[in-house]
What we know:
mainly beta, 5 strands, about 60% strand
Amino acid sequence: MQFKSTMVVLGAKSSKGEFQGRSYDSTTVFYKADLQEGDNFVGEVGESIKWGTSANFEKIKNLEFPLTADVTMEQVSNGKSSALVLLDLVPQKTSIPVKSA
């Protein structure tokens, strides 16, 4: 099931190469998440989620962080456990300042 949301993106990293004959290529996005409510929890944390290949990193690497983005995500399951997949990330127009050189 796909759904749209907004997230505060704290940063991102790209990873591409080969290790022991196997190629890898991914982008990891770090975003702000609220801690669950409870007696022993307070505040926010940084979480990570994969976002396709390193080509996605190229789309956002020169932006100013943190930034607010509109995202499309999908909840998927293998029948035993579920996972959240980031399908698309579009920085909001109010948060598109580019880093100065």
